[in-house]
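ok posting inputs for the fe (ii) ion job
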Amino acid sequence: MSFSLKNFWGVGLRPHHYESWLFDTPPGKCTLEAISENYLYHNGGPALYYLDQLVERFPLVLHGVSLNFGSADPIDRNYIQRLKKLIKRVKPSVVSDHLSFSAIGGKHSHSLIPLPRDPKYLKSLRSRLLWLQDELDHPFTLENIPRYLQYKNNEMSEVSFIMELIEGTGAGLLMDVNNLYVTCSNEGSDPVAEIAKLKPGCVNQYHIAAHMDAEGFLYDTHSGKIKPEVWQLLNKAISLSGAAPIVLERDDHEPLSATWEDWDGQSIAPAVESASRVNIATKLSDRYHSVSSGASL
Ligand SMILES: [Fe+2]
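and the output
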């Protein structure tokens, strides 16, 4: 069967668009992806005032940028408690951050730095993931980032590493198909072969975006036109893992009241019939509570 992208599309929620989404846009299926950190401090401020109302009108996912999940530093418990409170309040279907680190020894890089794909790190990362989910009392979702540097001990491939990390934890993957395309191109591997390693049901959310080619080295830019090869990866990912909210990342011209035509009129035809309607929140909750472990760091 084929299904329309328009049942799963979503865009980033930007503060300068709050009032337009609230007052000029009819309630609908478009998923809004809110940046978690915008609502965690000063009691949420005016931003939370808008978010409280928007969640009554649109599906919501929360996407964080400062968890520092992959670091050897302890996870900031104050941040976790604030995030937990926000989750309880706005009930997002997906809560995510990046599979990377951005600070070590308390020193912040303000960049997302990739982790070595070395199997010896999997045990501690899995413990950290289980602990995080128990602290939040919510399933967590990790996003693959674009890689611009290589480690000598990248013993596993990108998707194999993530599949092993999340398996049996109740956590899921935010599959950024553009990031995967950029990573594979920069590493000299085949993105189609990588995406084929996705397991059914492992993806809780997708990102799609554009990139730029700088003399053969690719950079994730969130601007410009999405390449056909990236659309094809998304199609393949959905056929393997199933449908989930698909958020368009576009920083230079974030759609205001996006219609699916803003996505270059693309449609996708996944092979999985059951993918057409998925209650993501129920699926995630069931999965998480079946493995919630009381893990400690
Ligand atoms: Fe992304």
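notes: Residues 5-291 form a domain with the TIM Barrel fold (CATH 3.20.20.150). Residues 143, 176, 179, 207, 249 surround fe (ii) ion (CB under 6 Å).
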